[in-house]
From TrEMBL:
SMART domains: MoCF_biosynth. This is CinA-like protein. InterPro entries: CinA, CinA-like_C, CinA_C, Competence-induced_CinA, MoaB/Mog-like_dom_sf, MoaB/Mog_dom. Belongs to the CinA family. PANTHER family: NICOTINAMIDE-NUCLEOTIDE AMIDOHYDROLASE PNCC, NMN AMIDOHYDROLASE-LIKE PROTEIN YFAY. Keywords: Hydrolase. GO terms for molecular function: hydrolase activity. Pfam families: CinA, MoCF_biosynth. Residues 4-175 form the MoaB/Mog domain. Signal peptide: none annotated. Coiled coil: none annotated. It comes from Haloferula luteola.
Length: 421
């Protein structure tokens, strides 16, 4: 079934309010076995009429949010009636509901609110116990423009969500005959690029009948989305994991920091962080996760060389010989954090965020990441992240968390080997 969403509101296009309806409604529709074919956002006013007129001629169902208020720019009901070729009348039940809403709150109802009781002839009023704007359902049989069902829904989430569950979902099920239930699995990867994933697995995934594949890249991670029957998804997942099982950190939508905290809690391991160029972002991301207190013992931000020496015991001669941004200093920071904290694992980062401070040998974007574990020599990785400062810090924190994840996985693997007969 071809479903389009029309979100109205100038504030959505001005950027003063985030448009979350498309994301939420897409997820809710997928649960019903339905998919969104198009999402359009228009300002308040006459643009609603044109966008709705186009949508009903393409779609089987159009879901409209916003524009049901009492003000002059709220013209969604007028636009819908005009497009469908239906007269607007004042609905007595809707008016009584409006009057009761204000009476229950001890407030007088302004005359302009009567506008919200206007309903296209024959349309169904969708009750709104959480606000003054009732929803409206225009079934396909009433729509003189096209065989398209139109739902007019309030914009505020506190009003939209209950109305969706109580009124919209049953009607969508009836219209669609239940929908075709696809399954979806989303795998999230770190340490590998979107193009690398695509090049390695996409040809094989395309051969799997009934499998829809999608990719979504963000700073430091990539999602691979598989949609289809469970059998097709299982085959596709197996192919992706054949090449990238080490880079896959989640199949349940968790963030990398959530995965790290959970893994360390299960393993009973403690973590310390020593940060220079990230300014505490690694520790901040870890402590964003509930239960982080069972994992993180210490977090140092040693931005100045004096702090690296005083807090982490980095030798002055190492700093003088190699510079603050170096493999030797990253290793010394990690070892110092491990020793001072008594943690099981420590991660350290030192780099050049820019836009100044780089050199030919160490250009802007250079970072050294050190990992130290009890009983092991520290390991240091050099990376390049030539971005703005905010992007650089995010990428470095992502790499650091992924190094922790890998270290915990190897620790658990070693324990399994040691425990096996």
């Amino acid at each position: 079934m071809n479903i389009e969403i029309l979100n109205t509101g100038s504030e959505l296009l001005l950027g003063t309010r985030l448009n979350t309806h498309g994301q939420w409604m897409g997820q809710e529709l997928f649960k019903l076995g339905l998919r969104v074919s198009r999402l359009v956002t228009v300002p308040d006013g006459e643009a609603i009429h044109g966008a709705l007129d186009e949508a009903v001629r393409r779609a089987d169902v159009v879901l409209v949010t916003g524009g049901l208020g009492p003000t002059s720019d709220d013209i969604t009901r007028e636009a819908a009636a005009g497009v469908a070729g239906i007269e607007l009348i004042e609905d007595e039940a809707a008016l009584r509901s409006l009057e009761a809403f204000f009476a229950q709150r001890g407030r007088p109802m302004a005359p302009d609110n009567r506008k919200q009781a206007q309903v296209p002839v024959g349309a169904e009023v969708l009750p709104n116990p959480h606000g003054t704007a009732p929803g409206i359902y225009i079934p396909p049989r009433l729509n003189q423009a096209a065989n398209c069902a139109v739902f007019l829904l309030p914009g505020p989430p506190r009003e939209l969500y209950p109305m969706w569950a109580a009124e919209v979902v049953p009607k969508l099920r009836a219209l669609s005959g239940g929908g075709f239930r696809s399954e979806m699995r989303q795998m999230t990867f770190a340490g590998v690029g979107e193009s690398d994933l695509h090049q390695e697995v996409d040809t094989d995934l395309a051969q799997i009948e009934g499998l829809e594949v999608g990719y979504c890249a963000r700073l430091g991670e990539v999602d691979v989305r598989l949609i289809g029957s469970q059998e097709a998804i299982d085959v596709g997942r197996a192919r992706v994991m054949q090449s990238f099982s080490q880079q896959c950190f989640s199949e349940a939508g968790e963030s990398l920091e959530e995965v790290v905290v959970k893994a360390m809690r299960v393993a009973g391991l403690k973590l310390a962080t020593a940060e220079s160029c990230t300014g505490g972002l690694i520790a901040s991301r870890v402590t964003d996760v509930p239960g982080a207190s069972a994992v993180l013992t210490h977090g140092w931000v040693t931005y100045a060389n004096e702090a690296k020496m005083a807090e982490l015991g980095v030798p002055a001669e190492v700093l003088a010989e190699h510079g603050a941004v170096s493999e030797a200093v990253a290793a010394a920071m990690a070892e110092g954090a491990l020793k001072a904290s008594g943690a099981d694992l420590a991660v350290a980062v030192t780099g050049i965020a820019g836009p100044e401070g780089g050199s030919e040998e160490k250009p802007v974007g250079t970072v050294f990441l050190g990992v130290a574990e009890q009983g092991k020599a520290p390991r240091v990785v050099r990376q390049m992240h030539p971005r703005d400062r905010r992007g650089f810090k995010r990428m470095v924190s992502q790499s650091a968390l992924d190094l922790i994840r890998q270290a915990v996985a190897k620790h658990e693997e070693s324990n399994l080997i040691a425990d096996s007969p």
